[in-house]
Design goal:
3 helices, mainly alpha
Length: 102
């Protein structure tokens, strides 16, 4: 299950990175130059709206996947300690360890 979440988060992060790189906050980025097809099909303003919505959508997807993954990812068996901690531990006797006790 962990592997599925990792793959989905990586895919969403790559798509988000691509969407962010295509945008330009001043309107002169690749969003208006994608083979001229987007200008004829959707219009420049709608292209930037779609890219902005895509940015928010994939950022939300990454956030939800990260939060949901905590419900399914458990700690490794070596880190799980179900035994109760000892209650009454005594300190070692004080004194010089080179001298035998009397």
């Amino acid at each position: 299950m962990t592997f599925i979440f990792v793959i989905l988060i990586i895919i969403a992060a790559v798509v988000l990175g691509f969407i962010v790189l295509v945008q330009n906050p001043k309107g002169g980025g690749l969003s208006g130059n994608i083979a001229g097809f987007s200008n004829q099909f959707m219009g420049v303003k709608q292209t930037t709206d779609v890219l902005e919505k895509g940015t928010w959508l994939f950022a939300a997807i990454i956030g939800v996947l990260c939060l949901a993954s905590t419900l399914f990812i458990s700690a490794p068996a070596s880190q799980q300690n179900n035994a109760p901690a000892p209650q009454n531990q005594t300190a070692p006797p004080l004194g010089n360890p080179s001298q035998p006790a009397k």
